[in-house]
Input
Amino acid sequence: MFLKIVRTWFALCLMTLLAASAQAQTAARLPNVVILATGGTIAGTGATSTTTVGYTAAKVGVDDLIKAVPELKQVANVTGEQVFQIASENMSNEHWLTLAKRVNTLLAKPDVDGIVITHGTDTIEETAYFLDLVVKSRKPVVVVGAMRPSTAISADGPINLYNAVLTAGSPDAVGKGVLVVLNDQINAARDVSKTNTTTTDTFKATELGLLGYVVGNKAHFYRASTRKHTVDTEFDVSNLSALPQVDIAYTYANVGPTAVNALVAAGAKGLIHAGVGDGSLPNKVRPALSAAREKGVIIVRASRVGQGIVARNGEANDDQLDFVVADTLNPQKARILLMLALTKTNSTKEIQRMFYTY
Ligand code: DGL
Output
C-alpha cells in the first residue's frame, strides 16, 4: 500500500514537471510568422540613396527583404514566399483571390501563428479591407509597406517590416481583424487610408483613429473595431475564381452621365457613385443611375469627401430609388464590400444590412 502511494506521488510530480516544462517551452518559443511578398516600394530600388521618387517598385525579393532585417530572428521564426512582384496600382481581383486563398491555407496550419503581407502603399487599404472581409482565422494578418525604396537614406521599409512581424506574432493582435502597420502605428483595415502621396506618415484613420502603436518592441493596442471582420463575416472566397464587376463613377461640378452610362454598358453589376458632400446626386447623373438600377445594377451612394456617414435618404430618396448608402466606407472600400455582397445576394435590403455590419 505504501509503495502504491509513493508510486502515485512520483507520477504526479513527474506530470507536473512535464507540464511546467511544456509551458515554459511554449512561452519561450518564438511565434512562426510567414511573410507573403507582393512587391511595392518596400521592395523598390532607386538610382541613388536620395531617390525617393522616380524609383522602381517591386524589385527586391522576399529573401532579400528578410536578410536586410536580421533582427526579425529575435522576435519570430520567419519564412518568406514571393506571391507576386508588382507595383500595387496593378493589383487585381485575381491577385486578391490568389492572396486570400494562400492566407487562409497558411493560417489553417497549427504551426503558423501569423502572417505579414508586404505590399505597395497605393492600394494597401484596398487589399487589407478585402482580406479583412474574407480571411477565416482570428490569427493576426498584418499588411505593411514603405514610402521610401530600400535603397534610400532612412528607408522606412526595414523598421516597418520589423514592426509588422512583431505585431503579427503578438497575442494582443489576435482577433483584431486585418491590420495595417507603418510608421510605428497600427490601423484597422476598414478605417485606414493613404492620406499623403509621398510622406512616411501617410496612413491614417483620420477621424475613426488608429488602434495602437508599436513601441519598444511591443504592439500596444488601445481600441478595437466595432465592425465585424474575418471569421465573423458571411463571405467565403474559397470556391470563387472571379469577383463581380463593380466600378466607381467620380462626381464633380458640371459632371454628366457619360461615365455612369459607359460603366454600365461595359457590364458593371454594381456601381459606386463617389458623390460630392454627403453623397449628393447631380441632376445630370441621377437619371443615368436610375436607368442603371432598372437594368438590375446595384447602386451605392458613397462620397468623395473621405470621412463621415453617407446618410440613407439624406441627399437622395434611397428608399424610392432603391439605392444603397456606403455609411462611412470610402468609394474604393465600398466597391470591395459591394463586390463581395454580390457574391451572396442582389437584394438591396440585404446589401444595405452588410454596409451597416462590416
Ligand atoms: N507604385 C506604388 C505601389 O506599388 C509605389 C508606392 C509604394 O509602394 O509606397 O503602391
Summary: The chain has two domains: 31-232, 246-357. The chain has a mean pLDDT of 95. Residues 69 and 159 are 8 Å apart (CA to CA).
